Amino acid sequence: MQNEKEGIINFIRLIGRLKKIKRSGWIRKVSVKEPESIADHTFRTSILCMIIGDMKKLDTLKMLKMALIHDASESIIGDLTKDERDELQKRQLENDAMIRILSLLPKDMRKNYSVIWKDFQDKASVEAKIVREMDKLEMVFQALEYEEEGYDKEKLSEFWASAENSITDSDAKAIFNMLKRKHKLQL
To answer: How far apart are CA 22 and CA 11, in angstroms?
Structure first.
């Protein structure tokens, strides 16, 4: 039992690193001086999942777990942007990191969270697809906030385009379009 609790402590401390790791895309592409952390992003992504999951009567608990661990690997590998690694290489690094992270947990939790992680990676369920879209939708909320803070709208347009191409759910698309109207008012 003591060993199990020690593993949980180590897991929480490792995940806690996400509070200090800044989202690198905002730094590299927009030069944001004080960008959100990965934990900031995860929090709002989780809130979006809770709301949209309940709205659509999906398995919201599954979505919340998925949202909470979707970037957990970044506590080890950092926030890698698409232009730093090819998708296959990035996915392998993430998988290796998740194995290491989840190994800290008791066996039943490890198995449960591994299944949730695989579902997210493979976009195997409706919930996984929606969580991925909420990940992108959260990015748009953040892009709009950076626009409102005066950051370069042209540099931020890449984030809008990425989200627009990824969001297909009707409720998520409606929210995206409302945010886009606010974005256009900023231009």
So the answer is: 20
